[in-house]
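Let's practice the habit of predicting before peeking. Look at the sequence and jot down your guess about where helices and strands might fall. Then scroll down.
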Amino acid sequence: MLRNSSSDEDDGQAPTISSNTSGRSPPSPIVQQKNQPVISGNHIAKHGGLVPPHTGDYGPLSPSTLPRTPNNVSTSYTQPLTRDGSNTFATQRTSPNLNSSGQESPSLANKLHSSQLTQSLQQPQTDDGSRTSAYDATSLKSNDSSLSDQQQPHPSSISNTRHPSTDSTMKYRIQQQQLQPSPLTNHIPNTASSSTTTSSGIPLDRIPSPSPSLISEREREENEKLERELEQKRKRIQIYVFVCRCISCPFNSKQSSDMARKHLKITQQQYTLIKDRFHAFLNGKTHIEADEAFSNAVRSYYEIFLKSERIVKMVQSGGCCSDDFRDVFKINIEKRVRSLPDIDSLKISKDTVVTLWMNKYDAIYRGQDQDQDNLNRRASKINYSSGSAELIMSKEQLYDMFQNILTIKKFEHQMIYNSAQLDNNDEQAATIRRELDGRMKQAESLQRQRGLLPRFVHKEMDSLFVDELKKTINDLMSNLESLPVRGGAEQKPLRPKRGTHGRNGSGGGGSNSSGAHSSSNKSLLVDGGDSEAEPGLSKLAFVLNFNINITVKEVKGLKSVPTNRVVYCTMTVEGGETYRTEHAEAGKPVWESLAEFPTNQILPIVKVKLYMENYSILHLEDIKLGKVTLQIDPTFNKTNWWTDMIKSKSTATDDLKVKLDVRMEKPQNLKMCGWCYARGKNVWKSWKKRYYALVQVSQYCFAMCSYREKKSEPTEMMPLEGYTVDYAAPDQGLVLDDAKYFFKAVREGDIVTFATNEENERHGWVQALYRATGQSHKPIPPQTTKQQQTGQTANKDTTDSDRTEKLGFDEYIQSDPCKFDHHDLFKYLQTSTLDFRLNDPYCSLGWLSPGQSYVLEEYCARYGVRHCLRHLYYLSDLLDRAEQNFMIDPQLLHYSYVYCASHVSGNGQDSNIATISVEEKDRFNDIKERLRQFLEQQVTNFRFAFPFGRPDGALKATLSLLERVLAKDISTPISRDEIRHFIRKCLENAAYINYTRVSEHAKIEETVYNSDDSPRKKIDDLIHLGELCIELLQQDEEHYNEAFKQYQDLLIEHEEIFWSLFAVDMEHVIDQQPVESWDSTLKNGRFHQQLRDTFAPLVVRYVDLMESCIAQSIHKGFEKENWKSRTRGCATSEDMLWRLDALQCFIRDLHWPDEIFGEHLEKRLKQMASDMIEACAKRVCRHFEVWIKKGGLMGGTGTDYLLPSECCVMINVILDCKSQALKLCALNSGDLHQYHTKIDEYLEKILSEMSKSLILKLVAVMDTALKKLSRYDEGSFFAPILSLTKPVNEVGQAYVAFVNTNLEQIRQKISDELFTLNLFEEWYRQQMHLVWTWLGERTEISLHPYQLKKQVSALSNNYLFMVFCLIMVIE
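Done guessing? Here is the structure:
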């Protein structure tokens, strides 16, 4: 956690280091990572007692800091992460030499010859052997670092990456040995005191010297520590070399300009200043006018937000910016303003009030010295913008930034820049070509030696991995090939054909291409008779475009021409147009005329002529006074050049000279040109002088061409693919006066010998051809006899190279990138970049800047870092920083995690990478578990991880990421129940944590559970605790309700658990109160008043919501009701009655202290129950009328009719409502039957109507049966006919069956027996009445036997029916 340097708080993590400390210091994480032997007191006071992190703090070590012992000789290796072909370490490195003056050696670690090493080991020690190594902390910091002393990095960023590489199958992966750091220092006790005696009385005049074993152990630890520091320094320099190459010549990525700009973060000093400004406003020490409402809003903002401990920690974590402060205040005042009632007399809207308040807030935030503060902020922003990570950065800015990231000093960068020729695009392109060819050869060797491959999750991925490598390298070659080569002809040249996997013929050290590609490497001849032309290349590809600029300035020596005559000059390039200058008098022939001539000739002829105007009528042409003819080449460049003119007859006696500026601009694809001697086997077969040019057609196609005068196309040319160039000894048979210095281009079956007149010219040709061929062997120029005698080098490049080699940088520049474990290097680079980013002035939340992302992307693409491992390293670093209390954006974690999860599951976003290594899978599983634990902690501590909902949207993004992490794989999302169970568990723990911290803040344990405090004080403390709890839950609703929108019920459970914890303390306090204290202290006192004022609106609102909810459930429930029988009624009715009863029990259990308000609530609930039951009865009655008509044939009046069970359920619903109405609708005070009598009468009416409808339906069946019997009456038309059929008693039997089934249906389905008996009695009475009426109508006629038989059956059944009813009554 970042601590303010002026703060007095001590978190106990940084050890106290004193100058008087003796002996071994206890191990400390900070000191161990820093590896500093001594930390001065001034440095500790300057930085607040905190040691900066190890990343980016080590510069070149001073030799004076080493103990002058033979053990100073280091035995560490040169390249800590490289191996040669036999998997052994490269050459050995030594520590810096010590000169006699004790000053710092210019080299980082000079190599020692064996003789010097032996001499140093045999040299006796002359200095004090007890001398210890002491470093000043400031000497290890880069002098060019842009971070000031006030901007100290976070101390927690000291720790290294948590999980080292675990892939044991990577043969080129070098495991770094983790060594324990040495103690801070070993001090010898002071011997200046008086003599002491031992227990035997023997005086001790001095303390004996330490034993030799202790001294040797101390020196060994110091040497080991020095070696580790040197190894880290070497590693950083090697990484910086690779980074510089990525910056100097990028060909895979570009800087993004659409990334969201980050705001400046608030530092601890700024936070203190902001609090002081708001405190001054509240104390009336500012000139800002404000009303009472605004002052109350500011006071609430100051007390709740600015003074919050959570905001202090957020500022220390570096995740707080000015927009966060402003947004919280805006949310607060918007809530206040919106809650105010509208005042018609004020002609101002609430939005205007919010705007005015925000303007006043800005004035307070900026302070009184607003203008000066703005100037300071603007100045600091401008100063940082030179290295600003939020803008598109130039190469120089990127160099400076990564110097600070990797703690590279300026002179080290300059040596690397000059020696690596970072400003030479041709050299960088050649370096890329050599790197890609080396990677291709490495891929082919992996294909042959499968043991060097990493382990994959499937065996089949071994061959697929090699194909992926080759495809990736071919893509890089295509990217490099797509880089434009400007300056060529109009026609786009065709690239030469190569092998399947790119350039296979760029071997190193003089190796040649394979014979399969020999046909494509043959040269092109103008005559075309001696060799085959390479397909795809034409002469037009080597036609160059030049611009010749000629300026005629002055002519002198015109003595024979009158001074008043007009003269002028003409300029022409042979084969082109002619230009002329302005007129000038012969006495002063001065011009400033510039002529530009485009041409395709590499050796053009330039002519400049001097004329005098002829005024004679008979002469048609002007008089020519002189001329100059020049043959120039692309190297010709002369300014203010006086040259003699060829005189004519009229100026034979004059000494004419002309002053010219002549310059021939060469195109960028012309890399080298000049006059050379050459002879080869297939091309340039004769040893003679020709004009040669090295022409680049594309990034992979170069050719050596010879040209003639006035010709634009080459006479002969030789493609350089497969050739290796090197210096050569002079051939005595070919040495001429202008052919002294030799070099050769060698290929299998061909040797071409070249010779130049000057040494520098030969060196330039060799370097240009070395870059063009892409060979790995770098030619070393031989020293001449004169140079050996004088000790001078050939040229500036050789001087820089020697100086670089002397200072120890040459091995880093010349090292082969293919022999490094770039995953480990990139991991270190990315970690250092993240630490630098988290400590810059911007609130980045872990997001890298566009420039940093751009360089890291280029590094990954160029050196083959797998994207999944890159994101896994990044996730590990982000989790480490998050665990160290840095604020990290969960969206950044989400992005990297999804990429890794997709790759590991086989659904990667990169179609070129389908292999999954064991290391990636193991790291991903480890990261997934760490991420799950981290997210669980974040959700559990959401109030402290995201204080006041800041950063905006972070908690919502965390919950979204949590769903991803809890899923089994990327294609199978987690079920809703599982994620809800996980979040419920987190919120339960959050309730306990939040209440515990609130209790600690209120010191409830010291007061409520203290037996010495009075009951009155305990009540006051409990009320204060309740106010804090209410304030906490209000903040949760205000700032976190949107994030938990999908889990509102879980958030409600969280609040209920929170209040249940409060109830425990409240019950404890109430139990401690005396019996008489209720009437004297609590009853109708402050406690009751607080309850009334706080919960009365909430209770009313809750009752309103429940009424609306119950009414809606009745409306929707009966529309979808299936009328299945339940315990007492249907599902909808039972739910309605349960809700009404639960609501009344809840309100009753409140025991509301205000009697008037309590009676009001009771009446309202009883009225609500009456209204709901009435609405239920109305809907049931309507459904009953519909269902009673269903069942049976003939409209439901046949003997097959069966009363629907749904009708019985509806009757049960009304009966249940009637039985519950007494409890739900009867008042406990006042008029007992005010609402119950009304609803009871209504339900009785409904039951009566339902009973009548049911009996009418059942009696209608008997009426139908009697109508059938009427057809047998005497005198009717159908009686004789029906008598002939000899009818049986089927009608009587059917009716008996009808009565039995319906009796059983009613008895089993209707729950109220009294209602059932009344129903049976009424049914029996109406049946008897119907039979009596039917028989009374037939007293005068005789009954048919069939009619008589049916009546007897019916009457007997009615008798049995009556007996059954009596039995039920008796029971």
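How did you do? Residues 1-207, 381-387, 487-535, 1363-1371 have pLDDT under 50 and may be disordered.
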